């Protein structure tokens, strides 16, 4: 288990990189707690794997240093960093039995056989592979092989961290849910530092204590699922987390009042705006209320998804999503009201503070 320090890390795959845009990973400067469960979440190409490979030692960053518990490991190999990794696709020994595959990382380190047996049996149970312990890996499905890979990542008790790169991609949906919950439980029991790469928000939000949201080579926010939902620091976080994502509307501001397409919206306080910049309001669909009176809105579509309804509407020339509780009627000639305390103000996509 280790605290991971990312000290002014940048990475470019092209050695001649100069401009910020040349870097696959723009500057990352953070400290991740010992024993934390982190998810790296973001769309394809945003730099998640690059950052994970820098932590594991598969990639040396172009700039900056990385430390485990304060000791510089920038020039150490994965093996020397004492890290377990689980990749997107299975890495198993086909000719070995399931049991021996799981035992391999332990036997390799001369762990006493009684301890090997205890650990392997725990993992067999966790991954639902107990019934096939004596079968050779060859001939198993991709799904079963990936469970072996996952088990091999989890079997050692002496690692500094366990890194997962989209480990559940080939697992069927029900088992995905089971394994995610098991991983969470295992994290609580073991206290390993875990870093989990995914582009799936459900996976990230159920697994992690802290979600690291990445966009275009940058970490745009590190927060608990609740923080990301309630106070996204960047419009991308608002849009990426939540279903549907946050509504973002271009606006102008005068004191504690915003104007969107000629409609006036009250804010909770006057935002502290920078001298220049593109101003937008962000409000989650859960905090827009449909009611008689209110600001004019055109309802275009209603999607009933069981727990609630999603209303797709147009407000002041902008698309707007509204979440309506299942039991509530959608009034004829509906208008809308925004909860002022739930409105965020963003300048050039970054959240600004409110009030003096
Ligand atoms: N070996 C490489 N050589 C050159 N460019 C690379 C290399 N690996 C990644 N890149 C580029 O770096 C950027 C970040 O890629 P990275 O794989 O880290 O993103 P990601 O968020 O993990 O994406 P995905 O979810 O698709 O794996 C992308 O623009 C990608 O094309």
Describe the structure.
The chain is of the alpha+beta class and 356 residues long. The protein folds into two domains: 4-235, P-loop containing nucleotide triphosphate hydrolases (Rossmann fold, 3-Layer(aba) Sandwich), CATH 3.40.50; 245-351, Nucleic acid-binding proteins (OB fold (Dihydrolipoamide Acetyltransferase, E2P), Beta Barrel), CATH 2.40.50. It is built from nine helices and 23 strands. It has helices spanning 48-56, 78-81, 98-107, 113-126, 142-154, 173-190, 201-207, 225-230, 235-240, and strands at 4-11, 25-32, 37-41, 63-68, 71-72, 83-86, 161-165, 193-198, 210-215, 218-223, 247-250, 252-254, 257-260, 263-266, 279-283, 288-292, 295-296, 298-304, 308-315, 318-325, 334-338, 344-347, 350-351. The strands form six sheets. A six-stranded mixed β-sheet has the order 6-7-8-3-9-10, sandwiched between helices. The chain has a four-stranded antiparallel β-sheet with strand order 2-1-4-5, with helices on one face. Strands 11-15-22-23 form a four-stranded antiparallel β-sheet. Helix 3 (98-107) packs across helix 4 (113-126) and helix 3 (98-107) runs parallel beside helix 5 (142-154). The chain is globular, with a radius of gyration of 24 Å. It starts with a strand and ends in a 5-residue tail after the last strand. The model has no long low-confidence stretch (mean pLDDT 93). Bound molecules: adenosine-5'-triphosphate. It is a peripheral membrane protein. It is found in: Cell inner membrane. This is ABC transporter ATP-binding protein.
